[in-house]
Each structure stands twice: as structure tokens, then as C-alpha cells.
Design brief:
Layout: H1 2-17, H2 30-33, H3 37-51, H4 72-87
Helix pairs in contact: 1-3, 1-4
């Protein structure tokens, strides 16, 4: 399931950054792929829709968020946690 989640997250982030998926490696930081705050907000909505989860993120205080959006891998891990919590 992890590979599937990672592929879906990369796809969503790539679309928002207007990049091909191959240009979004799992270890990339958001600023490295050029994802701005609007793109990050759109990505959050897309992730919620794709995985049927609710992401605890406050755009007015992104540093205080419980959802780590610093890197592609941190987003994958956070999505995995939310999916696991939902299943529990």
C-alpha cells in the first residue's frame, strides 16, 4: 500500500507544481519542486479527496500544523498515518 500511496501523492504534487511525476523524487522538499502556498493548499484538497481523509492543516499557521508538508516523503508519511487512523 505504501508504494501506491507514494505514487498517488507524487502524482498530486506533480500536477500542482506543473511538473512531470518523474521530476518529483520522494526526497524532494516542497520549495525544490516549486510548490507555492496556493499549490500546497490545492494539493491538500486533492489529497483529502483522493484518500477520503481530513487533513489537519491551518494555512494561516503552516508551521504549527500537525500535517508535515516540508517534503514529499513527509507528506506520504502523514497521509499514511491519517489513513491508518481512519481505519482504526
Amino acid at each position: 500500500m505504501t508504494a501506491e500511496i507514494e505514487a498517488a501523492v507524487i502524482g498530486i504534487l506533480a500536477r500542482q507544481a506543473l511538473l512531470p511525476e518523474a521530476a518529483v523524487p520522494p526526497d524532494a522538499r516542497m520549495e525544490e519542486i516549486g510548490l507555492d502556498s496556493l499549490g500546497m493548499a490545492e494539493a491538500l484538497f486533492a489529497l483529502e479527496e483522493r484518500f477520503d481523509i481530513s487533513i489537519p492543516f491551518n494555512a494561516n499557521a503552516p508551521d504549527a500544523a500537525q500535517f508535515d508538508m516540508t517534503s514529499v516523503q513527509s507528506v506520504v508519511q502523514a497521509v499514511e498515518r491519517l489513513i491508518a487512523q481512519k481505519a482504526a
